[in-house]
Amino acid sequence: MKRLFQALGIAALIGLVVVLGVAVERSRSKDAFVKSVAAGRLPAAPAFNLPALSDQGRVRLADYRGKVVVLNFWASWCAPCEDEAPLLASLSAEQQKDGVAFVGVDANDVVGDARSFARRFGLSYPMAHDADGSEKDRFGVTGFPETFVLDRTGRAVQWFPGPIDADSLRAAIRKAENA
Amino acid sequence: MAALALTLTAFAPLAQAADPEPVAVAGVTIGGVDVAGMTGAQATAAVTTAYTSGLVRVHVGKRNFRVVVKRLNVRITNLTQAVTAALAMTAPGDVHVVLTYDRPTLIRSVNAIDTASRVKPTKARWTWRGRRPVAIAEKSGSTVDRAKLRTDVTAELHKPTGRQVTATLLKLRSSLPISKLPPAITISRNDHTLKLYRVSHRKTVLWRRFGVAVGQSAFPTPRGLFRIIEKQRNPWWFPPDSPWAKGLKPIPPGPGNPLGTRWMGLNVSGVGIHGTPDAASIGYSASHGCIRMRIPDAEWLFKHVRVGTPVKIV
Hints:
The complex is a heterodimer.
Chain A: H1 2-38, E1 49-51, E2 58-60, E3 68-74, H2 79-95, E4 100-107, H3 111-120, E5 127-130, H4 134-139, E6 146-150, E7 156-160, H5 166-178
Chain B: H1 2-17, E1 28-30, E2 33-34, H2 40-52, E3 55-60, E4 63-68, E5 75-76, H3 79-88, E6 93-95, E7 99-100, H4 103-117, E8 125-129, E9 132-136, E10 141-144, H5 146-157, E11 164-166, E12 169-172, E13 184-188, E14 193-200, E15 203-211, E16 214-215, E17 224-233, E18 262-266, E19 272-276, E20 285-287, E21 291-294, H6 295-304, E22 310-313
Parallel strand pairs in B: 1-6, 3-11, 13-22, 16-20, 19-21
Antiparallel strand pairs in B: 1-2, 3-4, 5-7, 8-9, 10-12, 13-14, 14-15, 17-18, 17-22, 18-19
Helix pairs in contact in B: 2-3, 4-5
């Protein structure tokens, strides 16, 4: 009888370890990309091909190979995005001449709201619309705004899990140019 | 000039004296190729050309493909015997040909035709007309029956002319038919309702309608399209990274837990559908952005949605 209990105990322990392992594995897969960026492993950014917010054509990340890319995830209902938008507008104007491309991804949003947001803040760079946020999820983005800086070969050099500030973004762009 | 004329006349009788080269009689064919009146060399050339060049046309639906016979390296193994037999015939008749061809190339050609013409099946999905979800049916796909096409093309190689095949298509079933499409949710912030839609007899129908509380004006529930990405029974409540939650401590599962007994998290952090012990708030804009439901409603909904269920908030 004692042996039986021991065996059951061991079986339960193994079961627990397996379940925990699966849980850890799951949570890891969701934020694998951002963690890898944060650790400086320069992972390749997931490719996306999304409809343009303007409703004309599509926005493909692969089209920006050869340029440093500032990839900004946002939504019109996000208050910190409103605070960040004027800075993005001025920095994109400042940096565009130097082979740096700004690309926006509007996710989990209403198209009309997003278009007026972009117009209101004069965000004139290419904007993709990720209707249900599933492409955003592949990046491991969980809130807005979040920004990635990619080097010319599409590797993520820096991740900003919140609003950017001008100096850090300029530094990240410089880092991407030299990566 | 005179010398040339002399040589010519000298040769003429010699040529006439030699046996004329034998030719096949009228009505003789080799593998269906008419060789009547041909010498051995001419018949050999005609039969070889007919069987080792040209195309097999392959029709797949409305598209046309071609298999270039030359690439299949067709050989007539009994060509010499066949021509000898044909020349020896005194009455109309056909001499069969025996062919070999490069089978790996044929397999590759058929596979390439299948790959190029394959139609992938699509899954059933939800689309949105304003606030109403509409279920879009799946589409089945098609693929070429490769084994049959190989047999059919091989049969055509054994014909000297007019080689064409219509490929047989096999249906590829969708992995998600409309009858299996999981439900979809629309939440109206103005009406304070959560509506669950499902597919019944291939049509979108309203399944259940619940009263909910949504975000107060300072913390509006975001508008847009979302997906449920996590489901939790008896969740802990953790203070979100927001000014209003500063200094608050996590709350374990139990009667006073602000998330009730079920949590259905959306793919934006901090926003989800959950039960609430504060049933009086239902019907109002009272939350910090979440969608609150009565506890039994949340438990019922939890059982009928899954990770991936789309949620449109208007």
